[in-house]
Write the structure tokens for this entry.
Amino acid sequence: MNKGFDEYAQTLIDYQDKLFKLQEKGKLQDFQVDDMYAKFKSNLNKSTPIGEELGSGVEGTVSKFKGYPESVIKFGQPQPSGRVTSDFIERMSKFRADGNIAVPVKAGKTFRTKLNDGDLSGEYQASLMDNLSHTDEGSLSRSLSDRDKYASLLKQTKKLQHSGARLDLMNRENLKFNSNKNNFDIYDLSDIKTVKAWLLIDT
């Protein structure tokens, strides 16, 4: 991953930690921390490759990648379960040809940060993914019926899970219908190995 993404991540974490320390001293309230962090991140993005935010969820925030419309950048939220490893990238690489699964293709350095709810710590990481809105149809067909679309989705999710991918299907935003492909795009994958390791440490 480009060194610039690691510097970007470190800058955000340093500022967030600074806000948390002020909060612990009673100088800032929760809403002030959130507002100040959002403004700082917005201003920082203007001078980095990070573009318009496309969405956010439990696993992180996804934004456009300036100058590279075929890619998007995901900035992970502070939780070890969302870590992207080279092993996970390799296992997911075979799904890129499907054209409707947001698998990571590159990952940056992992940074640890302290959270504002005690001694817990989490991890931030930048990862690069294909922009599914910009990809070709791949192996999908425009002539799929509703039944075939859901059958295709079920088949893909089973293959992903068999390859060690965890899908957050509780969030409907992770399954978006793409009218250009006449099928569903699948987002927000995480590595079941990382999730299990995190749960074992956490319990």
